[in-house]
Amino acid sequence: MMVWSDLAGLEHMVNKQSVLTSSEAQTYYDRFGKKQDSQGFYEDPALDDLIAHACFRDAQRIFEFGCGTGKFAARLLAEHLPPSASYLGCDISPVMVGLAAQRLEAYPERAKVLRSDGTAHFPLPDRSIDRVISNYVLDLLSEGDIRAVFAEAHRVLTPGGKLCLASLTRGINLPSRIVSSLWMAVFRMRPSLVGGCRPIRLDAYVDRDRWQLEHRRVLIPFGVPSEVLVLNARGTPNPQGLRRPERPREIPCS
Ligand SMILES: C[S@@+](CC[C@H](N)C(=O)[O-])C[C@H]1O[C@@H](n2cnc3c(N)ncnc32)[C@H](O)[C@@H]1O
């Protein structure tokens, strides 16, 4: 009989072998386009939680990796960012870039959207950004690319800046474990049936010498588990190489 630890092993195999290539992801999301906004039934509670913990009202320079249709950016600009804040989004899909640019037309001075090349490179100078966001994108990427996104986020964030993530994740109770196992099984058969996304553990990628864990929560609307992480960039690596405390520490917005 298969047990949960076997499923975790399967996840590792999946992560290693069968994510969509960047050109397959581009083709898929070019076709998917506006339909991405219909995923709100399981994404919105996680995004609400991210907004509640990422102190966007203190942010000035925001970068989003994999901005999709620009729905989250529009919400931030309309309701959560100060009027002086600027936003840069990127996406591999030209259709998504077009949809996001159209959606953000009301903010010509403050919001820009670029097409990215499929790598995890962020087109930004070191220490130039105070929020890096990526929602439901890392769960599409290979382990190596996920690590590269964390490294790039650390490079571009100012010390104390925040990396704000939401992703599909593994279940934490029986119903959500069943859902995530079924999701994984479908992904293994044909990744494009689930948009190339599979449940991952974001917190497994966090290097505690580079990041302080401010907030982590798993939400399971309709049985679909999502992980929310807010991490604070540490300025310099810990010279002794000591592990930092693992418990999230809630830091209130100023
Ligand atoms: C599941 S959608 C999520 C979109 C948006 N963040 C949201 O929450 O609605 C994944 C998005 O990531 C983009 N994407 C996939 N691979 C990418 C890559 N390597 N670089 C940049 N964007 C990528 C896709 O084009 C798509 O818009």
Number of helices: 7
The total tally of domains equals 1
Outline = globular
Please give the alpha-carbon distance between the first and last residues.
52 Å
Strand content: 15-25%
Roughly how much helix do the residues carry, as a percent range? Answer: 25-40%
CATH architectural group = 3-Layer(aba) Sandwich
Q: What's the pLDDT, averaged over the residues?
A: 89
Largest sheet: 7 strands, mixed
**Rg to the nearest angstrom?**
17 Å
Strand order of the largest sheet: 3-2-1-4-5-7-6
Listing every helix as H and every strand as E from the N terminus to the C terminus, the arrangement reads HHHEHEHEEHEHEE
Characterization of this structure:
With 254 residues, the protein is α/β, with parallel strands linked by helices. It has a single domain, classed as Vaccinia Virus protein VP39 (Rossmann fold), CATH 3.40.50.150. Helix content is 35%, strand content 20%. The chain contains seven helices and seven strands. The chain has helices spanning 4-17, 22-32, 40-53, 71-80, 94-103, 143-156, 174-189, and strands spanning 61-65, 86-91, 111-115, 129-135, 157-168, 211-219, 226-233. It binds S-adenosylmethionine. Residues 22, 25, 29, 36, 43, 65-68, 71-72, 91-93, 96, 116, 118, 135-137, 140, 195, 197 line the site of S-adenosylmethionine.
